[in-house]
């Protein structure tokens, strides 16, 4: 089994989800795992970081034609690497870009594709993936019937490795793009959270739900997040009501997060939302409804008026961090 991990990066920073998949890939075999980074400019720093965090070999495909990021040119690059290197398994951490690449690569290689996985193991010489089903109430085993396999993992399924092998073997890859792959181009980009931290990679998330009562009350979540050094998230109902940007939405149709601390303010805890945050290490919920579903999977449940509790909590956090 030869595993290749696609490492998505923003600037010189590899995404946490990609690094988590890299760590898992290293556990599948004898610790030897290859990764690929694709983009424009100088990718030496990104390749070195990949080695420090688990990759023993890094394929580097650097070409200005690969920026800004579009999926089809990356399919061309990965297709060439897989065929030349004899890789039979390609792993991705889910994102809008990665999902497009994984689907295109599976079609190009005539490979089986399993998505929304949360784990993968080797059993009797075969790979077996685990995927949530029945509204995430059970885990089912899934497999591949093809010789080549593509897997797309739910963000936050694995934690990045603390340290790796050190300096990886780096192989620079010549970029050859198909004519049809350069037919589309990005003419403009806008980032809703430009200059701010991403909710997906945050170690502390303070999420607001309909229980906040109105968009003006998101100031409570923002102040608490600021005191804790975290970011603000939102439920689907809040986003659909126009109270907060879609970029902050957490859940099945939004972002998947796995912070060290997740604070839910006025969040009922519907299954759709649970899907996006259930891998949080510690979950604290504040809600006036003692029957709120979120209390069933919270580590600390506070029943009460969040409008009275949160300002006091924020002040206590500021005092503690200031001392």
The average pLDDT score comes to 90
Number of strands: 17
Strand content: 25-35%
| Domain unit count | 2
Strand order of the largest sheet: 7-11-6-1-4-5-12
User: Span from first to last CA?
Assistant: 53 Å
Please work out how many helical segments DSSP would assign: 8
The rough form would be described as globular
Helix content: 25-40%
Could you please say which CATH topology of the largest domain applies here?
Answer: Rossmann fold
**What is the C-level CATH assignment of the largest domain?**
Alpha Beta
Largest sheet: 7 strands, parallel
Q: What low-confidence regions span 5 or more consecutive residues with pLDDT below 50?
A: none
Cα gyration radius (Å): 21 Å
What is the CATH superfamily label of the largest domain?
Answer: HUPs
Order of helices and strands: EEEHEHEHEHEEEEEEEHEHEHEEH
Q: Quickly give the structural class.
A: alpha/beta
User: Which architecture of the largest domain does the CATH hierarchy give at level 2?
Assistant: 3-Layer(aba) Sandwich
What does this structure look like?
With 323 residues, the chain is α/β, with parallel strands linked by helices. The chain has 2 domains: 3-182, Rossmann fold (3-Layer(aba) Sandwich); 204-322, Rossmann fold. Helix content is 28%, strand content 25%. The chain contains 8 helices and 17 strands. It has a 7-stranded parallel β-sheet, with helices on both faces. The protein has a 5-stranded parallel β-sheet with strand order 14-13-15-16-17. It is globular, with a radius of gyration of 21 Å.
């Amino acid at each position: 089994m030869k595993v290749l991990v696609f490492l998505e990066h923003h600037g010189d920073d590899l995404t946490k989800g990609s690094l988590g998949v890299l760590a898992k890939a290293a556990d599948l075999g004898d610790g030897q795992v290859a990764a690929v980074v694709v983009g424009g400019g100088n990718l030496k720093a990104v390749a070195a970081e990949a080695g420090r965090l688990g990759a023993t070999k890094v394929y580097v495909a650097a070409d200005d034609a690969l920026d800004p990021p579009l999926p089809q040119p990356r399919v061309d690059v990965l297709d060439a690497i897989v065929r030349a290197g004899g890789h039979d398994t390609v792993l991705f951490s889910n994102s809008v870009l990665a999902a497009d690449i994984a689907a295109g690569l599976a079609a190009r290689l005539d490979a089986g594709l399993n998505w929304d996985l949360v784990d993968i193991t080797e059993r009797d010489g075969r790979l077996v993936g685990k995927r949530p089903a029945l509204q995430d109430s059970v885990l089912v085993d899934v497999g591949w019937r093809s010789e080549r396999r593509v897997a797309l993992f739910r963000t936050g399924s694995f934690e990045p490795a603390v340290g790796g092998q050190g300096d990886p073997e780096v192989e620079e890859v010549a970029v050859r793009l198909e004519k049809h792959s350069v037919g589309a181009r990005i003419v403009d980009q806008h980032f809703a959270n430009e200059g701010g931290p991403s909710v997906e990679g945050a170690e502390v998330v303070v999420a607001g739900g309909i229980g906040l009562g109105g968009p003006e009350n998101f100031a409570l979540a923002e102040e608490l997040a600021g005191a804790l050094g975290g970011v603000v998230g939102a439920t689907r109902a809040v986003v659909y009501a126009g109270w907060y940007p879609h970029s902050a939405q957490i859940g099945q149709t939004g972002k998947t997060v796995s912070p060290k601390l997740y604070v839910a303010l006025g969040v009922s805890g519907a299954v759709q939302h649970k899907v996006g945050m259930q891998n949080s290490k510690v979950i604290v919920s504040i809600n006036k409804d003692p029957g709120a579903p979120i209390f069933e999977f919270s580590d600390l449940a506070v029943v009460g008026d969040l409008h009275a509790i949160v300002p006091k909590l924020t002040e206590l956090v500021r005092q503690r961090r200031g001392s």
